[in-house]
Amino acid sequence: MALARSPQLLILTARFLLVPRRDLAVSGPSEPLPVVRIPRALQRRQEQRQNGRRSAPRPAIVRPGRLLISARRPELNQPARLTLARWENAPLASRGWKNRRSRWDHFSIERAQHEAPALRNLSSKSSFADLGLEPRVLRVLQEIAPEVVRPTTVQSSTIPPLLRGRHILCAAETGSGKTLSYLLPLLQRLLGRPSLYSGSIPAPRGLVLVPSRELAEQVRAVAQPLGSSLGIQVRQLWGGRGMSRIRLQLSKQPPADILVATPGALWKSLKRQLISLNQLSFLVLDEADTLLDESFLEFVDYILGKSHIAEGPDELKDPFNPKAQLALVGATFPEGVGQLLSKVATSDSLTTITSSKLHCIMPHVKQTFMRLKGAEKVAELVQILKQHDRAHRTGPSGTVLVFCNSSSTVNWLGYILDDHKIQHLRLQGQMPASMRAGIFQSFQKGSEDILLCTDIASRGLDSTHVELVVNYDFPLTLQDYIHRAGRVGRVGSEVPGTVISFVTHPWDVSLVQKIELAARRKRSLPGLGTSVKETLPQLA
Ligand SMILES: Nc1ncnc2c1ncn2[C@@H]1O[C@H](COP(=O)(O)OP(=O)(O)OP(=O)(O)O)[C@@H](O)[C@H]1O
């Protein structure tokens, strides 16, 4: 065997072995040996095998100290103090996960800090009063939301320019307090200008557009108590139950000063002239990237066309000719949003604000990735939920969100959980509107511990007691991953958050590898660029 170490010797060995015995016996020394050609690929494989044998097995690197990545194979761990440079090729824990043999492999991105990055500002000296809010708005905020004492980073950066009448594009991580950052300036703006309107159809002065009914309900629930203490009426408008329901919502008295609406319902109302946007002085697009994507773009385009957007802060001053100030907020923004915006606002009237943690892996949430076969997911989920249930019985614990990619999976999985006597709620887009109404609110109030849902629950919905997000189906895009994971670890969260993702398909693996690489490099996720001009103060 020692003879076969190099390709030349290999050829000789092969020549010797492949020559028939009979020929060897009769052939004299003058006769040439028969030539056996060994394919180059076989030679190369042999070389590789020998090189592999020669190199010593890699020692397991078990370094002391906190870890950023902890993998099943400890040699792939990455200590928290180490950051991979942009050009460095990382030994990924998810490498080879497209191969079926990698099943049951797993790794975690560990929690690097306990508090949400947006909370760091809370320890600073700045207060809501410093941001330019009026004493009556501050008083109401204190009465209605006593837990909101100091502004978060995004609130500190967004409120002052909004109060100065600038259009805003605000991109900041999930759960960082974006809702109050536009609601407080909106309330203050309406306080400063009483309605001069005397028309027959409702004409709200403030409009908040959101992509789902659940989010409309949530934003209304935050705005209404603040508004009613200031004499401002907040109403919601969403569809799904026919025109008669829309008419009923619009006919409520007194009419809305601020309307929180979904695009489809508002579009229908505008087409039928049940509502007018002539008096609009503040327009918010919450979860703006969803509102500007193809499914809503036609409605939103129409609504923007009907709203008279001001060219700049000067145009906002005339009470007899109301023009609207524009605020777009979201936790993810696609490339090209700036071009879209240029249709409605000039670039010098727009302030773009983005957080330094935008599109980054949340450093305060543990994120585990498990490579499983499709058929193994149910058993794993049931085990996780039972474990959670046991923990819940023995002590205080939070709630669980389980995300699936389709409504049918939510229903199917629901029946399986029923069989295992695991109590839960279900929320998916194909439910009749009457069934869907109120489900997320009852989950928020804690009537059930587990919510099985599709991505309709991933955008903007706030629950401070969600402790665990399970991606039963891996999300189809990195944006969806960010939004789903953003249901835990929110400002004001009562429990530390964890995300567990089941990884099954090769396309899931491609996304996981991007997430792992971004985590190891401590950089933002790739392909989610934004037209950033001004960044929030860099956090230490
Ligand atoms: N200044 C503050 N101090 C303490 N808690 C706050 C403050 N501002 C907001 N919160 C709380 O933080 C939580 C998240 O806020 P909010 O829903 O506005 O986040 P968001 O940035 O809009 O999230 P998403 O991107 O998911 O829509 C809410 O429960 C809210 O009450």
TrEMBL record:
Enzyme nomenclature, EC number: 3.6.4.13
Q: Which CDD domains match?
A: SF2_C_DEAD
Q: Which InterPro entries match?
A: DEAD/DEAH_box_helicase_dom, Helicase_ATP-bd, Helicase_C-like, P-loop_NTPase, RNA_helicase_DEAD_Q_motif
Residue ranges of the Helicase ATP-binding domain? 159-351
Q: Per its UniProt entry, which superkingdom is the organism in?
A: Eukaryota
PROSITE patterns given in the database record: HELICASE_ATP_BIND_1, HELICASE_CTER, Q_MOTIF
GO molecular function annotations of the record: ATP binding; hydrolase activity; RNA binding; RNA helicase activity
Q: Which ranges belong to the motif Q motif?
A: 126-156
Pfam families, per this entry?
Answer: DEAD, Helicase_C
DEAD-box RNA helicase Q domain residues are 126-156
Keyword terms: ATP-binding, Helicase, Hydrolase, Nucleotide-binding, RNA-binding
| Reactions catalysed, as given in the entry | ATP + H2O = ADP + phosphate + H(+)
Q: Taking every annotated instance into account, which residue ranges of this chain make up the domain Helicase C-terminal? A: 380-536
Free-text domain note: The Q motif is unique to and characteristic of the DEAD box family of RNA helicases and controls ATP binding and hydrolysis.
Q: Which family does it belong to?
A: Belongs to the DEAD box helicase family.
| Job description of the protein | RNA helicase.
Q: Which PANTHER family match?
A: RNA HELICASE (PTHR24031)
Protein name listed in UniProt: ATP-dependent RNA helicase
The lineage is: Eukaryota, Metazoa, Chordata, Craniata, Vertebrata
